[in-house]
Amino acid sequence: MKLYEFEAFPNPRRVRMFLAEKGVSVDRIQVNVPEGEHRTDAITAKNPSATVPFLEFEDGTCISETTAISRYFEAKQPKPSLFGATPADQGRIDMWQRRVEDGLFNAILTYFHHATPGLGELELYQNKDWGENNRERAHKTMLWLDRELANRPYVAGDTYSIADITALCGIDFCKFVELDIPADCANLQRWYDEVASRPSAAA
Amino acid sequence: MKLYEFEAFPNPRRVRMFLAEKGVSVDRIQVNVPEGEHRTDAITAKNPSATVPFLEFEDGTCISETTAISRYFEAKQPKPSLFGATPADQGRIDMWQRRVEDGLFNAILTYFHHATPGLGELELYQNKDWGENNRERAHKTMLWLDRELANRPYVAGDTYSIADITALCGIDFCKFVELDIPADCANLQRWYDEVASRPSAAA
User: Fold this and answer.
1) Which ranges in chain B belong to alpha helices (H)?
2) What is the pLDDT of residues B128-161, one digit of tens each?
3) Given an 8 Å threshold on Cβ–Cβ distance, is B55 in contact with A129?
4) Does A71 touch chain B (CB under 8 A)?
5) B27 touches chain A (CB under 8 A)
6) Is A101 in contact with A166 (CB distance < 8 Å)?
7) Shortest CB distance from B76 goes to which of A68, A87, A95?
8) Binning pLDDT at 50, 70 and 90, where does residue A108 land?
9) I need a labelling partner for A167 at 20 to 30 A (CA). Which of A87, A94, A111, B198 fits?
């Protein structure tokens, strides 16, 4: 089994953090996205979406999409559970995973790709106003998370989950594009300091 | 347990179809979204995202997000499996669920909300160019699905899954905004005719 990625990017980091929390090791192959390797026939034959990360099995079949790859490993090795053990936990974690992915992680990546030079010539379509709107969405999601984290230790409840990984990678990408955690968000900052100090954050 | 929804909308339909395939019945409460009821304090106290559908448990806690609600019911009643039984199935179905949700279902809803009058005064921000770009993405995803469906009966493999529900609701919303299945997409049309004739499609 091989994990195709580009190490500097935030979605591959999400998978590496997930694997680190599981204690699972997978061979990694770098796809040179800045030079367009993700759009070569050799890669799109494996992943027509032309994205990283994706996972290739021994039989040649592949799974792309960050959460889908994580889901595979959760099913293979359920403990420690990062998607939730009970039905209610699974539903709640999936809800928060979606909320922080859409409102924070994807929002700030959208800002990067649309309202900054992004990946330069690799950007096939840019819409600056859409990008700026998403930067504001990411900011608002941080304010929302701060209110939520007044009442519980982690994004989706009492235990660390995939939603914490997504939120941490989202906030670190916010920092990368110079959108810091708002100064008055003490709950979010407390949460950030804890999850950023886990060994998985350096994976 | 209560399911809050607005029956005419496509995301609530996805949950109803999921429940119909599971043979599960849940009390439903209509939230009058066209009149702005989803943004009232009574509703946002339950679901701060101000979206439908969402599920309310007897203890007052709620789960929003279409896929998260479906995930809860999958865990409660695993058969028939709509998210996959084996780890590889779960990964592959999650991948296709994401691909058709992002590239088809969400894309065509984005077109509706941004490049048409959408929900009128309820639209807080519109970006016509982004909407038109997403209409084209939905079109391209239909062409891609047509190629994929040359080799298998369902979106994610040999069995019906949540990805078929998402794709069907996406294509029916395409039809609603006058983007039909391309005439030369015989595989996609064959798939559509089958899944649209299942009893769940009328749920």
Assistant:
1) 10-22, 41-44, 66-76, 87-100, 106-115, 128-148, 162-176, 186-196
2) 999 999 999 999 999 999 999 999 999 999 999 9
3) no
4) yes
5) no
6) yes
7) A87
8) very high
9) A87
